[in-house]
Fold this sequence. Notes:
With 456 residues, this protein is of the alpha/beta class. Helices cover 33% and strands 16% of the residues.
Amino acid sequence: MKGCFDFTIDELGPCKVLSPIHLSKVQNDYRANYVTDKEYIRYTLDVNEEDLAEDTKAFSQNLIQKAGPREYIYFNPKHVNAGICTCGGLCPGLNDVIRSIVRCLYNRYGVRRIRGIRFGFKGLFPEQGFDTIDLSPDIVDDIHKTGGSFLGTSRGGGDRVQDIVDAIEALNMNMVFIIGGDGTQRGALEVAEEIEKRGLKVSIVGVPKTVDNDLIFIQKSFGFDTAVQKATEAVGAAHMEAHSHINGIGLIKLMGRESGFIATATALASHEANFCLIPEVPFDLDGPEGFLAYLEDRIRRRHHAVIIVAEGAGQEHLHATNEHDASGNKKLGDIGTFLRDRIIEYFAERKIHINLKYIDPSYQIRSAPAAPTDSIYCERLGNNAVHAAMAGKTKLVIGLVHDKYVHLPIRLVTARRHKVNPEGSLWRDALDATGQPILMVNAKTELPPSENGNQD
């Protein structure tokens, strides 16, 4: 996304405590170095001649602070009382992040008071009756081997800002690590703002968790690689079923409420999908240029087809309820079962025999243990979250940008959704992989404006 952005990170105060982590300040001494607050990466990498000619402000302003251990920190580790919570839906890697935060606090900084908040924000409300869990390396050492969340999770509760801050104050916590997606992090920002109003010195640090990969500025969210791996296995099974039957059709619904990154990446990874339907690209069902006509053509020519559909695709064809879930997400119609029934009906009307298999692996994917690539990523996200909190930084999430771990203001990463750009190279390559038409819309169809946001 092009433009000039303010990546300034809020801080609780000056860092005067010497860190217990002994690193180096010089090069070539075989010891890792401290990171300073004056080290940045440049957000804008893509340039063209117009940018160079205009000498745009983007080159001097779009600087993102590097994450990592500081030589001097804000909190005395002996006085730290830390809290960790996981919010929203499940995602591969949650336990890896919890484990990493606990181990870094305990082993690297010597923090001995670490509490797990059970079942998301709701674990902070007295009427729910959930006590916190005392955490240590012995408790969390093996939790990365299983999926789900060791602490439990829930949707909602982030709007009860006063109650959350009351609980943080009552528990005497001075840093809270909040692992969650877009809605969770918006709630975390409101919590941090209320903490600031009360004059409290509490660091709020987010670890962005969204399997849909839909947070802007962040290169990739944890759990995404695992999701694509598991989704690719489902596509492989659907392809075997379709290929083994007369006019076999495999239909797989994947996660992706507003962003089709999992579906797109899975189409590229599997090499076996013939159609990929995502929220960012509209399609017609009927008519000579509609999806069903192209599917019929595929069946007549090749006698089998595999279709990937993201859960948020084609919502214009379904009845809108205008309802929202506890996290504030719009409730979607079930595009998977709708397409399944519509495809069966379409071919029955034409007296064409098909054998359709429908697969929805969503909850199997969400609850899976993290793949090795995600485990590595989660370990490093957790470590850098701790380094940021100990240095008194707040209202931020840890992210990966241009393969560097950085501090990103929550206000920026929650400003809008990250989406697949229908005019970018990722979707172009996905079209090459599936062989589907660029657009499956009839001439009379009025298309909504694309929200590509200059994303790749």
